[in-house]
Amino acid sequence: xxxxxxxxxxxxxxxxxxxxxxxxxxxxxxxxxxxxxxxxxxxxxxxxxxxxxxxxxxxxxxxxxxxxxxxxxxxxxxxxxxxxxxxxxxxxxxxxxxxxxxxxxxxxxxxxxxxxxxxxxxxxxxxxxxxxxxxxxxxxxxxxxxxxxxxxxxxxxxxxxxxxxxxxxxxxxxxxxxxxxxxxxxxxxxxxxxxxxxxxxxxxxxxxxxxxxxxxxxxxxxxxxxxxxxxxxxxxxxxxxxxxxxxxxxxxxxxxxxxxxxxxxxxxxxxxxxxxxxxxxxxxxxxxxxxxxxxxxxxxxxxxxxxxxxxxxxxxxxxxxxxxxxxxxxxxxxxxxxxxxxxxxxxxxxxxxxxxxxxxxxxxxxxxxxxxxxxxxxxxxxxxxxxxxxxxxxxxxxxxxxxxxxxxxxxxxxxxxxxxxxxxxxxxxxxxxxxxxxxxxxxxxxxxxxxxxxxxxxxxxxxxxxxxxxxxxxxxxxxxxxxxxxxxxxxxxxxx
Length: 496
Description:
The chain is mainly alpha-helical. It has 5 domains: 1-120, no CATH class; 156-258, no CATH class; 259-324, no CATH class; 326-413, no CATH class; 420-495, no CATH class. The chain contains 27 helices and 2 strands. It has helices at residues 43-55, 59-76, 83-99, 104-113, 122-135, 140-149, 159-169, 175-181, 184-204, 209-218, 227-239, 249-258, 261-273, 278-287, 296-309, 314-319, 322-325, 328-344, 354-358, 362-370, 377-384, 388-394, 420-435, 443-447, 451-459, 466-473, 490-495, and strands at 7-10, 16-19. It has a two-stranded antiparallel sheet with strand order 1-2. It is globular. Mean pLDDT is 76; it is low at 1-45, 395-432, 438-444 and 482-496. It holds the Pfam family mTERF.
């Protein structure tokens, strides 16, 4: 049993300090006072000077950090010590990190995030734990990044926990990722519970170990509970409708670990208030349980946008989970507006859906639905803060010089809703034009054009493909003539 002694001592300004004695890591003491009178200096009146001179803190930031340290130390209990010893220890900590290659800005972030690092013992605590991290392959810039992101790990006996993670993960490759995402509490639990929890999960469902490892690296906390609580969560996942053989079981576990049954029920009620049935909600959870992890206000805003503004129905939304997994402001709204303008001007087919555009990554979307159409350059730039000049530069000015996209670029994730004739014509014409060196343009980029625009851009200007088009459609060359559209050969194009 740890014996804790408490005493209150009146300081010059009447502030009461609580002092206790704790063995081990944080035994270094602290003076706590707001007095700045000469003859009775305190930590909060001298440490700011060190932080300003050694780490480049602003005066306001240095006082705030010093006060935070004082409160934290008082909360856990700390023995009194001379002001000189306290500041001297803080300086030794700063010098220790500098000798390891940490930049001033790195140390400043560490101290801001975890002020108690300043009262750690360098030789007894910091140095041995840094060496242990080195032994696990975490060194150099990786070490710096790990400590800066999660400095509290140096307040943790993480050795046993790391051994458990190594056993489960099978290598040291992702240890730094784990260290960045777990605080001391989880490290203490993981040393005892991680291995039995993973064994329980494997026996409970058919999730491959590789996928479990990936999820542990991405989101470790759901797997670091006490084993009895972890087992309860496995049962709760099935209760919300996700079977143990589902590929979504891991995600259901993450949902359950972060929300109580009451909060999950409250979020389901939000969907029902927008006309969803319980069956609709259950389907959504089975498709992607992470849809319920958003805050209630954000769920309401998303449903309002998708249903009240765009007119989408629950079954359509459930079938297109991407509508729930991306930002409204950064992706859904800008891409909806681009499609809206293109359809109004007859530049793409009316049945081109928002989910088809949302599934594209940013580069593919810009190349296929923004760059070829000057009509949406300004719209997209205003809604996404994209540099308008870059769009024009990449487009090489004008619709005749459309963005060149490699055929293989991101085609696997493209879900275009194409008409049969546009699909056939696009494939055959592009082959002919590319063989003659006329252009380097991908089939998906051409296929999204409506038929009239496709003819004007890819058939009428090039006599080389008139015969191909005639053979495929039965149209005569004469019927292709459109007023104001000159016929061009590959030679004339090359000479421009």
